[in-house]
Amino acid sequence: MNNNALERAKIWLNEQYDEETRTKVQDMINNNPTLLEDSFYKDLEFGTGGMRGIMGVGTNRINKYTLGAATQGLANYLQLQFPDKQKSVAIAYDVRHNSDKFARIVANILTANGIQVYLFESFRPTPELSFAVRHLGCDAGIVLTASHNPPEYNGYKVYWNDGGQIVPPHDKAIITEVGNVQPSQIQFDGNDSLLKMMGEEIDNAFIDASISQIGFNHQGKEDLKIVFTSIHGTSIAIMPEAFKRAGFTNVHIVEAQATPSGDFPTVQSPNPEEPAALKMALDLAEEVNADIVIGTDPDADRLGIAVRNLHGKMVLLNGNQTNILLVDYLLKQRQNDGMDGTEFIGSTIVTSDIFFEIAQYYNVDCKVGLTGFKWIADMIRKAEGKQKFIGGGEESFGFMVGDFVRDKDSVTSTLLACEIAAAAKANDSSMFEELLHVYTKTHFYLEDLISITKTGKDGAEEIKQMMAEFRLNPPQTFDGSKVIRLDDYLHSISKNLVTGEETKIDIPMSNVLIFYTEDGCKIAARPSGTEPKIKFYFSVKTHLDEICDFEIKEDELLEKIDRLKKEFK
């Protein structure tokens, strides 16, 4: 047994922890050293999506004490940042096991510290929390969620007063405060006079604001046949009414997945990136001859879309393709309304480089940040008063429409996707054809992802070693094409491997490597910030002069990606 983990565990046998917790810790010490080590070998940390982990006792678990320390530390930081005002925090939670209980614990700690809390009366989408922070003028926001992770997970995300997730310097400062919190300092006894429940009023405001971001097209909305699934998640609280108000009346909901449940009983993974998660929706689409299928993840910040291809067959769009359609449509409409040259779109370093070409086509700026929407929100905050954010997203099925929500938002993105599909259908086109039209304006880009899971302490070490090996012995070629540039975000250096020239990367440091080849390939390696995984991103491109050539070109790119994957064994 790891002695450090054992010593950390023994601290949890003190009287400041409740009896149930002490009993579970003692049982691990006596009977399950492997579980004890994984539960105590480290503290949960804030990553690209906040603090996320398996529920249970221990410093490396989500429980009342790790959440309590995080919340007490946040409360202490808010007292320092806003000393002369009544501070307020909005709180939302998802459908997961214990999310409602955890949300109430967090609310109690904040009110015990004299902070006004606005708590949703039941589960709500994460983007609605981001909206509520700004709508209510709160100093911070918290959402209890583990997004699309397995049922045993839960998590905790902190938002600042701009509605975006915390970024430097606040994230590190809050972590410092959290690290200084002793269990005896956590104030668990709440003050209900400082607690206000939220519900329909915020729902209505959020739906109205969401619809105001779209509404460019009023053609054919009633003719668009939509299949929608919430995959047992929070979007069911909002989407039926949002569809109705936006004018989409021909909506078929997958009833078997409309029941909120932290067990996600009809899917192996409630992740709209996984085709299996949308199988029931795709089956229903064939029954009703739907034009579009949309599924959202449990906290309703991400969405997966399927549309009919050139042969009328339902195909799943990847995250980049959905993002292309949304961004291109937004820019096209803004261009029709008249742009003033201050517009920009947002993307991330592992997202397709096609967005640079789209931005160039419309003569707007494309800003790029690290993975995670907190960095796109940070772009918006820094550009306020100088530039206008139109939209953007990342390859992992997250998108943002306008800046009224400062996090990925499946609600507004769903409505916008349906508007694009309705407009295309009314003009004897399709959403798929609209995507191909974009490729003819730029390059035809195609991407794929390998995600390798490595759990526990040993897994974390293995991922660390894999990244170290890539730095020590970087590949010289991919698929026979020479690597001409290497971007190392951990050391903030972009190196031209032809000339040897090095330039500084003006983006916060992160453990990411991106290789660029002579023939236009882009390959990225990145450990996940929210899951025990390492991810490899592959992007290839070619010219598509005519839509009729699409399938030939697609086969060529798919074969190239397959060869690249094989090189990674």
Automatic annotation (TrEMBL):
<dbReference type="InterPro" id="IPR005841">
    <property type="entry name" value="Alpha-D-phosphohexomutase_SF"/>
</dbReference>
<protein>
    <submittedName>
        <fullName>Phosphoglucomutase</fullName>
        <ecNumber>5.4.2.2</ecNumber>
    </submittedName>
</protein>
<dbReference type="InterPro" id="IPR005844">
    <property type="entry name" value="A-D-PHexomutase_a/b/a-I"/>
</dbReference>
<dbReference type="GO" id="GO:0004614">
    <property type="term" value="F:phosphoglucomutase activity"/>
</dbReference>
<keyword id="KW-0460">Magnesium</keyword>
<dbReference type="InterPro" id="IPR005845">
    <property type="entry name" value="A-D-PHexomutase_a/b/a-II"/>
</dbReference>
<dbReference type="Pfam" id="PF02880">
    <property type="entry name" value="PGM_PMM_III"/>
</dbReference>
<keyword id="KW-0597">Phosphoprotein</keyword>
<dbReference type="InterPro" id="IPR005846">
    <property type="entry name" value="A-D-PHexomutase_a/b/a-III"/>
</dbReference>
<dbReference type="InterPro" id="IPR016066">
    <property type="entry name" value="A-D-PHexomutase_CS"/>
</dbReference>
<dbReference type="Pfam" id="PF02879">
    <property type="entry name" value="PGM_PMM_II"/>
</dbReference>
<feature type="domain" description="Alpha-D-phosphohexomutase alpha/beta/alpha">
    <location>
        <begin position="45"/>
        <end position="179"/>
    </location>
</feature>
<dbReference type="InterPro" id="IPR016055">
    <property type="entry name" value="A-D-PHexomutase_a/b/a-I/II/III"/>
</dbReference>
<comment type="similarity">
    <text>Belongs to the phosphohexose mutase family.</text>
</comment>
<feature type="domain" description="Alpha-D-phosphohexomutase alpha/beta/alpha">
    <location>
        <begin position="318"/>
        <end position="437"/>
    </location>
</feature>
<dbReference type="Pfam" id="PF02878">
    <property type="entry name" value="PGM_PMM_I"/>
</dbReference>
<dbReference type="InterPro" id="IPR036900">
    <property type="entry name" value="A-D-PHexomutase_C_sf"/>
</dbReference>
<feature type="domain" description="Alpha-D-phosphohexomutase alpha/beta/alpha">
    <location>
        <begin position="205"/>
        <end position="306"/>
    </location>
</feature>
<keyword id="KW-0479">Metal-binding</keyword>
<keyword id="KW-0413">Isomerase</keyword>
